[in-house]
């Protein structure tokens, strides 16, 4: 029997997690709650031109998250074709959470803290919101890592009958 390789499933889940985490950020914080745009701290969307520039950069952000999601789906499809890749829900969900956490950590550190191009929720408590965003990312990373570790022993059947462990009927 070939050794099980979880790497392809972790990579697929991680990339999907980055993309889907970015979609949650863009859809929830940028569009529905309208707390910020990509450049709202350096170019407040107070007039039509500034709003259009921010919308353009939000569009680039969404294009990036779409590419990450599409890449993750491609990797997931390829992993699903490989018999040595265990189809583990815990590993996959852990990688999704880890990818989302990685997105939050990188976006929170670079965009919110280092570049200051926008903050989660500008205003009197913006540092608390930014730190909460980072803490949520770290929580996702820790939870994702724990699930990936817990999935190490998962070896669901691949390419075989799902009912192979059920007793067979007499003469069957």
Proportion of beta-strand residues? under 5%
Distance from N terminus to C terminus (CA atoms, Å) equals 26 Å
Largest sheet: none
Number of strands: 0
- Percent helix, as a range, is 55-70%
Shape: elongated
Measured on Cα atoms, how large is the radius of gyration?
A: 21 Å
Number of domains: 1
Give unreliable regions as ranges.
160-168
Quaternary organization: single chain
List the helices and strands in order. HHHH
Can you give a write-up of this model?
- The protein is 64% helix and 0% strand.
- With 172 residues, the chain is mainly α.
- Residues 153-172 are annotated as: Disordered.
Brief summary of the model shown:
With 172 residues, this protein is mainly alpha-helical.
What's the layout of helices and strands?
Layout: H1 7-32, H2 48-80, H3 89-114, H4 126-150
What would the keywords be for this entry?
4 helices; transmembrane helix; mainly alpha; elongated; transmembrane; membrane; DUF2243_membrane; 172 residues; single chain; Conserved uncharacterized protein
């Amino acid at each position: 029997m070939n050794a099980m390789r979880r790497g392809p499933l972790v990579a697929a889940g991680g990339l999907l997690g980055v993309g889907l985490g970015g979609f949650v950020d863009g859809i929830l914080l940028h569009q529905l709650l309208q707390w910020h745009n990509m450049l709202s701290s350096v170019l407040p969307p107070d007039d039509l031109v500034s709003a259009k520039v921010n919308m353009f950069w939000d569009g680039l952000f969404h294009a990036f998250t779409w590419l990450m999601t599409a890449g993750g789906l491609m990797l997931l499809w390829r992993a699903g074709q490989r018999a040595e890749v265990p189809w583990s829900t815990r590993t996959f969900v852990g990688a999704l959470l880890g990818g989302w956490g990685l997105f939050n950590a990188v976006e929170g550190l670079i965009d919110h803290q280092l570049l200051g191009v926008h903050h989660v929720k500008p205003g009197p408590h913006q540092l608390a919101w930014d730190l909460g965003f980072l803490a949520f990312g770290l929580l996702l990373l820790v939870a994702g890592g724990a699930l990936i570790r817990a999935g190490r022993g998962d070896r669901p059947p691949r390419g075989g009958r799902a009912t192979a462990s059920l007793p067979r009927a007499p003469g069957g």
